[in-house]
Amino acid sequence: MLDFSSLLLAAALSGICLSVTMFAIWFTAPKAGFVLTVACGILVLVAHVILFWQYTKDPDPLLCQIVLALLSLGFLILCVSAMQYLGVSGYRRAVAPALAAMAICAAVTFLGLDGVGFVVTYTTVTALLSAIGAMFWINGSHDRRILLVVSFLSGTCAVSFALCGVVLLTKGQWALGAAPDNWAERLNSVVAVACMTGLGALTLSLHHLQAQIELKAETMTDPLTGLMNRRALTSLYGERSFGPFMSVVMFDLDHFKRTNDVYGHPVGDQVLCRFAAVIKKYARTGVDAFRLGGEEFAVVMSRMTEEKAHDLASKIGVAFGTEIVATQLGKLRSTVSGGIGFGEASGRTLDDVLAGADAALYAAKRAGRNCVIGRTAPGKAEPVKPALRSA
What we know:
The protein is of the alpha+beta class. The protein contains twelve helices and nine strands. The strands form two sheets. A seven-stranded mixed beta sheet has the order 1-3-4-2-7-8-9. α3 runs parallel beside α5 and α4 runs antiparallel to α5. The radius of gyration is 31 Å and the shape is elongated. The termini are far apart.
């Protein structure tokens, strides 16, 4: 049977190994800032364990304050790392109460009520661990099984700290004069080592998942405009059946090759980005924009009638016609042509709708460009309100 000192040594050794692993991961992937935060939090907890071990050998009031402060601070940093990973804003909501609790703990410990200080600290840690578990379960967007394990481990560790505080409360140990040593403390040492090791391993898994998500986002995003690309269009809508309230608008910038030849490719890139910015202004739920390649774009519209689809496509064309790009040869105003492909009550594939949109786009080109064409009746296509023409 391990004695209390051996349990503390195991906890410190486990924490050091975890922190070294986290630092190594962060050095290879500096963008994973939450991993660095986790490593720092674990190091603070390792410092707590080492000083707590010293406190068990040589109790000192000042050392007691430092030990309790490090315990709260370590879990506060871990809580911040969870918020950082999950994208939860408002760190102050966790930091301010924790710092206030640390100040209260320091005050009562200074007055000789170190038992109360331990209770306050255990309560703070319990709240922080509970918050970590709740945040992962509520805000997590990854595999729910992994998130459930994270929440379970955080909750289990929180319960072990809560038991330590409850034992001190039930025994009325307001002034200890030494480190608490009871069944709850020993249980907490075992549980904390197991849970922190498990959470460390899960942190590696979550980092791997985040890296996969970021890689997928990069492969699905056009690097110039920030819009989704053709691969994303196929991924999102390749298996969808397009009903009567779904449509695709294909846009093609007018005379774009001439723009590149006369003004240069950097100006051409600016024009592409301007058009992407115009599309983003009209983006909302049910409207997804894509750059298919070159000067070709697509907008998928869901839960929208044909009339509203016409109206939105026309507004995009008109808005882009007002955009002016400053060049060394003077002001440049560009236009865009568009064609709309519609779904049907019986359902159509993405390829069929794109083929319809492509045919309508060519009709818009033949009609003189700078307009959007879509059908107004089966087998009939007419131009929609034209956009502003180039100056």
